[in-house]
Design brief:
CATH superfamily of the largest domain: Periplasmic binding protein-like II
Structural class: alpha/beta
Oligomer: single chain
Radius of gyration: 23 Å
Largest sheet: 8 strands, mixed
Order of helices and strands: HEHEHEHHEHEHHEHEHEEEHHHEHEHHH
Number of helices: 17
CATH topology of the largest domain: D-Maltodextrin-Binding Protein, domain 2
Length: 337
């Protein structure tokens, strides 16, 4: 009997250790909720980070991605999507999450450069050969022109397109009234408003809607890779907006999952030379001066203005232009041309 009891105990201990072993062997999983047109960049970045983290710590990690219009993504996280980090294209979406207690209120101070490891700008993409002869923002408001734009209500891509067009008029000496008239004409030329940047690209290329697409500079490379080189030409307008791509730890999730240290490492490494190189290869403008200089041929010079310069901040622009009843609602009525 004693021998049998000892055998049972030994068997139980062995079984327990076998059951426990996979828990220690399992990879830690991190979820990054991100904006639409960052899919290809984060696919490459995640693979590089996993290798870096393994080499640095000896630990395995798995990175999952969720992509969509940045504002829609922010709402999903606020509503319970257990993302460990958010990597957005406008600070207002991160501010929204800070306002509901999901990320730290001082999130811009948690990482360098206002917690924005990369920047971008808005370009005009046209069909191969530029059949409509589009050269600048003025061409997009001409009668009969059709322009594909992301809805500013659902994506930062659309908000930056709106602000770039508004700022173009202001930087040329125009009044706010003239800017409003100009942007109103632009959106009246939009046959559809896409939910996110990738939806806009799909409408333009797969559904063959529109004469031009307003989107982030980084989307040019993504289009070449997905649809084949030569499908679009990139038109660099004379003036455009500097767009920052902010990142933040979702403390609600990391506290629950115990992934705070990993989440910080994941976002910290975005500032590394290797990560900045990956960003540049995806036409995201790196913060590193050395890497930016190395890829000078990719990032053509153009006159850039900051949101702060003309609108005070993205938060102020959100209140004035994009909140319900704001300027955008006044100048754009769906279905009315």
């Amino acid at each position: 009997m004693t021998f049998r009891i000892k055998t049972l105990v030994a068997t139980f201990v062995l079984a327990s250790s076998v059951l426990a072993a996979p828990a220690f062997a399992q990879s830690t999983t991190l979820l990054n909720a991100s904006y639409d047109v960052a899919r290809e960049f984060y696919k490459d970045y995640n693979a590089a980070f996993v290798a870096h983290y393994k080499q640095a710590t000896g630990k395995d990690v798995k990175i999952d991605q969720s992509h969509g219009g940045s504002s829609a993504q922010a709402r999903s996280v606020a509503d319970g999507l257990d993302a460990d980090v958010v990597t957005m294209n406008t600070s207002t979406d991160v501010d929204f999450l800070a306002g509901v207690g999901v990320v730290a209120k001082d999130w811009p101070k948690k990482f360098p450069d206002n917690a924005s490891p990369t920047t971008s700008t808005m370009l005009i993409l046209v069909r191969n050969g530029n059949p409509k002869g589009i050269k600048d923002w003025d061409d997009l408001v001409k009668p009969g022109m059709q322009v594909v734009i992301t809805n500013p209500k659902t994506g930062g891509n659309g908000r930056y397109a709106y602000l770039a067009a508004w700022g173009y008029v202001k930087k040329k000496g125009g009044t706010d009234a003239q800017a409003a008239e100009f942007v109103g004409k632009l959106f009246k030329n939009a046959p559809v408003l896409a939910r996110g940047g990738r939806d806009a690209t799909t409408a333009f290329l797969q559904r063959n809607i529109g004469d031009a697409l307003i989107t982030f500079e980084s989307e040019v490379i993504s289009i070449d890779r997905e649809f084949g080189a030569g499908k679009v030409d990139a038109v660099y307008p004379s003036i455009s907006v500097l767009a920052e791509n902010p990142v933040a730890i979702v403390e609600r999730t990391t506290t629950k999952k115990g992934t705070g240290e990993l989440a910080k490492a994941y976002l910290d490494w975005l500032y590394s030379d290797e990560a900045q190189e990956i960003a540049a290869k995806h036409a995201l403008r790196p913060r590193s001066p050395a890497v930016l200089k190395k890829y000078a041929a990719t990032f053509k010079p153009l006159q850039l203005f900051t949101v702060q310069e003309l609108f005070g901040s993205l938060g102020e622009a959100q209140k004035v232009h994009f909140n319900d009843g704001g300027q955008f609602d006044k100048l754009y009525t769906p279905g009315v041309k």
